[in-house]
Amino acid sequence: MIQIFTTGGTIDKVYHDANSEFEIGHSLLPELLSESNIHEGYRFRELMRKDSLEIDDADRHVILQAAEACDCERIVITHGTDTMADTASVLSSLKDKVIVLTGAMQPARMRRTDAVFNIGFAWASVQLLPPGVYLAMNGEVFEAGAVRKNLKAQRFERI
Fold first, then answer.
1. Which Pfam families does the UniProt record give (predicted)?
2. Are 78 and 9 contacting, i.e. CB atoms less than 8 angstroms apart?
3. 23: which residues sit within 8 A by CB, 6+ positions away?
4. 102 a catalytic residue
5. 18 pLDDT more than 80
């Protein structure tokens, strides 16, 4: 069984107008999994609906507590990309679970989103990786503490 936690981020953004005003909406994750023909083998729980720039240390503690309390050995967490690496570093204290954070550069509701691929990639990664905390984004896996988001290039890179 894989536990999936959602925290918000771009993957769940809903844009309201041409001025790019947005809110974090209900997660499309169950729908994305269903479209990928994944219908069982997971539990789903929304932890929060926040842009990752709004996630603070108290929120990271909530995420950490949820992962600690979870009886699953494999966890996928959807998270906004701007502070995903920070949350992964906090979670790296958990040594006995496989935790994979993923998200999207474009909302799942948009036609040209990377959300579907990233979710599928995280789903496979969480089943294949050894215990540890990882980011799975755009076809690459990064270890917690050894990754950053390159804002200019709009991608993750090893540090």
1. Asparaginase
2. yes
3. 13, 14, 16
4. no
5. no
| Rounded distance between C-alpha atoms, residue 113 and residue 25, angstroms | 16
Under 8 Å between Cβ of 36 and 120? yes
**Mean per-residue pLDDT for 80-103?**
96
Tokens representing residue 43 in the block: 């539990």
Against a cut of 0.85, is the pTM above it? yes
Active-site residue, from 10, 78, 81, 113? 10
User: At CA 114, angle to CA 113 and CA 115, rounded to 5?
Assistant: 90
Q: Distance between CA 19 and CA 98 in Å, rounded? A: 39
Only one residue has tokens 């507590």, namely 65
Question: Tokens for 62?
Answer: 């909530």
- Residue 136 has which token pair? 């799975």
For the chain, what are the domain ranges?
2-158
CATH superfamily of 2-158: L-asparaginase, N-terminal domain (3.40.50.1170)
Q: Name the CA dihedral angle for 58, 61, 63, 68, rounded to a multiple of 10 degrees.
A: -160
The Cα angle at residue 91 between residues 6 and 68, in degrees rounded to 5: 75
